[in-house]
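Minutes, project check-in
Item: structure for the 383-residue chain
Input as provided by the requester:
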Amino acid sequence: KFTYLLDTETENAPVLTTGNAFRGALQQLAGQPFRMEPYFDPGVWGGQWMKENFGLDASKENFAWSFDGVPEENSLNLEIGGKTLKVPAQDLVLYAPHELLGERVHGRFGAEFPIRFDLLDTMGGQNLSLQVHPLTEYIQDTFGMHYTQDESYYILDAAENADTHVYLGCKTGIQPEEFQKALEDSQQTGQFDAERFINIIPAKKHDHFLIPAGTIHCSGKDCMVLEISATPYIFTFKLWDWGRLGLDGRPRPIHLAHGMKNIQFDRDTEWVQKNLVNRVEVIHEEDGICEERTGLHEREFIETRRHWFDRKVEHETGGSVNVLNLVEGEEAVVESPEGKFAPFVVHYAETFIVPAAVGRYTVAPYGKSVGKRLATVKAFVRV
């Protein structure tokens, strides 16, 4: 209901637009593919892959995180009247939730974006912290959230000729009491034998590991992870952080009390291998195109599909917002068969969002990638 919007993001360069122009831009965006401005941050375990592949500040020691597909964290850059206006991406979710999310997604989650894509870079870095996310009933009873952070690790890249792996689930036969005591002792000794208790599973490029809440997990070093998860903000219970200090020189918080109440010890070696490692199923195959279902676990509301293609692929939003990442190939173009929006070009490892209102759209090799085999990973809310 405001008349003007003033953006003072850039010092000494304010940008003013009318409320009508701003609302019109959001309405237009809700009917076409778009990207948000990604956010990059260093971390104690951070690596070098994003710095090298995204042309980031070379003077920084590392980059650990990238939120690239998280409206609560990212910005939108809207060009209005020849000027660029930077606004919270959440504005679009709040203004046009029906068009963006789709009716059934909005009916379930309200004006809340339920899918999160982010990047975790340990290439030339260190292991992530060993952690677990709360079960649905626990996050409801303890924190008042109505859904939890189920997730998965899609391996965008991994160091060649290196022992790359993920930690996932408990080893068969371990005793919870013994495990808890070892973790408690680690707070005093600075030592914890993770290999004794946790499955260590080899990880290579394009592997997909499913991580329903309650499953112990972390990525090992020398991996580039596309993390696909639900978005209940931040409820990560750290169990062990390899005895290191944070960037502020202080020990990073450990949450054993919460963590032990959520670890599912029956997710042991056999169960993990059967249910969480590369659950790839071919859905459709034709000349030059292969569609695969890669997850997520049945406890999770997110469905993921991988498309391999060397020619134009047809997609349909199916009543849910679609979140995609170009996981193989230099660049691709997203188009509307009905000409609803201008062709939209995306590049390797970039996340892009297709609002539910778009309906039919296509993705095809573009530029230097024409004639080559590409791949996207797409996430949407299951029916």
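Outcome recorded: The chain has a mean pLDDT of 94.
No further action items on this chain.
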